[in-house]
């Protein structure tokens, strides 16, 4: 019971998940009149918006991950435990984790989302998701490994199968990946593999709706399409992927595309922990919350960030699952928890949309501000600045800046390493 978390007179806030939302609230409660317990299945925070740069060998995984223990070194009444939370017993006010049982006075659920394969088994088995740093690293290894196979292929068909990449999902993740892979193919790979004709390498982006970047403005979606076409990405909208097996991607119109790598960036559903009543859940496993982020039916269990579903007139389908929502909800909940100690009334959440953006490749990005949409080089500079400043840790920021500057001028980042665990088949 209470895996060595000391007893305290202070009320205990247990936070499950140290993503954008969980990290913010844990930091906000620094030296507060609460005992704070942060639980995460990893011992590090991950910066998801730059996974695609790990997958395309532009950044090291360590540049976008930051150990919790380092962040919270000087916090009082704070305890981190690395554990997978399995179940909640709300009547007893305890949660059951892989390391034992933990009691809470207030529970903050911030476990985010995981890839949703929409029950398409063949894609779940053979496709590549990109929802963790380790998945991004696996993708990098696979893509680089396939270039090595392409080099020694017996025939052109086999070579093309190893080179070609299909990305499913035309949201920011799919668009950013497609652009980065195109930059890699156009600028970097021909120098590494002079024996391969990279004009043969197809990068395809498949989107089931009628346009790209559906959550952004029409102008941003149109510009993204134009930029990707300029980079020679084959974009197909209005068609979906039915299956992926034996290196064959089957589309909804029956077309078969031969490719060894399919990257699935087509949807997410909230991470679920057993124990809460069924009525607490809305679509995609998101937890229904009121304006204070209290889970419906509870007065001491909160849900924030991607897994929360707060419905109001402006957001009838809930807020967008983006970092700004997670951060703003965490900031308000921090204040509301502190208000509760001084009997001040809690405030309701109102999302301030500061805009959204996506980068499509070198010098190319789109930005939607509340009253202005634009694209191109200036948008790309803004994208870089905003992402750089959002990274946790001065050292990480510095290394990323150096990396980006180096890559920009040399067009030759040197992170193309295939690092994998030793197996019986491997050489060393
Ligand atoms: C590839 C990609 C690119 C993105 N790009 C952008 C972007 O450019 N801009 C933007 O605004 N948003 C972007 N997003 C979305 C953004 O990352 C999310 O909105 C944000 O991370 C949500 O924060 P969160 O705290 O709710 O969840 P997360 O950041 O997902 O954190 C959840 C945490 O919970 C932990 N966890 C999960 N289950 C358990 C469990 N059972 N037990 C213990 N710990 C658990 C996880 O390890 C993780 O640390 C992107 C997402 C992805 C995947």
- Rg measurement, Å: 23 Å
Our measurement of the CA-to-CA distance between the termini, rounded to an integer number of angstroms, reads 43 Å
The ligands bound in this entry are: flavin-adenine dinucleotide
Helix content: 25-40%
Count of extended strands: 24
Count structural domains: 2
Class from helix and strand fractions: alpha/beta
Summary keywords:
428 residues, alpha/beta, FAD/NAD(P)-binding domain, five-stranded parallel sheet, four-stranded parallel sheet, 11 helices, 32% helix, globular, binds flavin-adenine dinucleotide
Give a quick precis of the structure:
The protein is α/β, with parallel strands linked by helices. It has helices spanning 20-28, 51-55, 68-71, 121-126, 133-151, 156-163, 172-192, 218-230, 323-341, 377-390, 394-410; strands spanning 12-16, 35-40, 44-46, 65-67, 78-82, 85-89, 94-97, 100-103, 106-109, 113-115, 165-168, 203-207, 234-237, 241-245, 248-251, 256-258, 261-264, 268-270, 287-288, 301-303, 308-309, 356-361, 364-369, 372-375.
Summarize the SSE layout with pairings:
Layout: E1 12-16, H1 20-28, E2 35-40, E3 44-46, H2 51-55, E4 65-67, H3 68-71, E5 78-82, E6 85-89, E7 94-97, E8 100-103, E9 106-109, E10 113-115, H4 121-126, H5 133-151, H6 156-163, E11 165-168, H7 172-192, E12 203-207, H8 218-230, E13 234-237, E14 241-245, E15 248-251, E16 256-258, E17 261-264, E18 268-270, E19 287-288, E20 301-303, E21 308-309, H9 323-341, E22 356-361, E23 364-369, E24 372-375, H10 377-390, H11 394-410
Parallel strand pairs: 1-2, 1-9, 2-5, 9-20, 11-12, 11-17, 12-13, 19-21
Antiparallel strand pairs: 3-4, 6-7, 7-8, 10-18, 14-15, 15-16, 22-23, 23-24
Helix pairs in contact: 1-9, 5-6
The structure holds flavin-adenine dinucleotide (FAD).
Residues 16-22, 39-42, 48-49, 51, 84-85, 110-112, 130-131, 172-173, 271, 273, 305-306, 321-324, 326 line the site of flavin-adenine dinucleotide (FAD).
């Amino acid at each position: 019971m209470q895996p060595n978390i000391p007893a305290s007179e202070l009320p205990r806030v247990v936070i499950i998940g140290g993503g954008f939302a969980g990290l913010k609230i844990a930091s906000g409660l620094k030296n507060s009149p609460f005992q704070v317990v942060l639980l995460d299945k990893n011992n590090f925070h991950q910066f998801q918006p730059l996974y695609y740069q790990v997958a395309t060998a532009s950044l090291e995984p360590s540049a976008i991950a930051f150990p919790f223990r380092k962040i919270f070194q000087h916090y009082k009444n704070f305890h981190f435990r690395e554990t997978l939370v399995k179940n909640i017993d709300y009547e007893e006010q305890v949660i059951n984790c892989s390391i034992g049982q933990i009691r809470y006075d207030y529970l903050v659920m911030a476990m985010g989302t995981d890839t949703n394969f929409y029950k398409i088994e063949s894609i779940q088995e053979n496709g590549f998701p990109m929802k963790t740093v380790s998945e991004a690293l696996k993708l990098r290894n696979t893509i680089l490994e396939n270039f090595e196979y392409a080099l020694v292929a017996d025939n052109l068909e086999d070579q093309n199968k190893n080179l070609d990449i299909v990305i499913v999902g035309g949201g920011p993740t799919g668009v950013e990946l497609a652009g980065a892979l195109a930059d890699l193919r156009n600028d970097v790979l021909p120098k590494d593999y002079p024996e391969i004709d990279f004009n043969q390498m197809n990068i395809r982006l498949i989107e089931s709706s009628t346009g790209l970047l559906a959550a952004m403005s029409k102008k941003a979606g149109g510009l993204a399409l134009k930029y990707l076409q300029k980079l020679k990405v084959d974009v197909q909208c209005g068609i979906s992927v039915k299956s992926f097996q034996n290196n064959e991607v089957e589309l909804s119109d029956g077309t078969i595309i031969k490719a060894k790598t399919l990257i699935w960036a087509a949807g997410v559903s909230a991470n679920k922990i057993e124990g809460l009543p069924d009525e607490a859940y809305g679509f995609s496993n998101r937890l229904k919350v009121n304006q204070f982020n209290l889970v419906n039916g509870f007065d001491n269990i909160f849900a924030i960030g991607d897994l929360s579903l707060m419905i109001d007139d402006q957001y009838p389908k809930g807020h967008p699952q983006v970092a700004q929502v997670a951060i703003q909800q965490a900031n308000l909940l921090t204040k509301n928890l502190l208000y509760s100690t001084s009997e001040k009334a809690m405030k309701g959440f109102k999302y301030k949309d500061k805009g959204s953006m996506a980068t499509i490749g070198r010098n190319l990005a789109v930005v939607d501000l509340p009253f202005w949409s634009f694209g191109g080089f200036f948008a790309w500079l803004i994208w870089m600045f905003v992402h750089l400043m959002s990274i946790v840790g001065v050292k990480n920021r510095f290394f990323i800046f150096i990396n980006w500057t180096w890559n920009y001028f040399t067009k030759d980042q040197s992170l193309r390493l295939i690092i994998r665990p030793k197996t019986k088949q491997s050489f060393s």
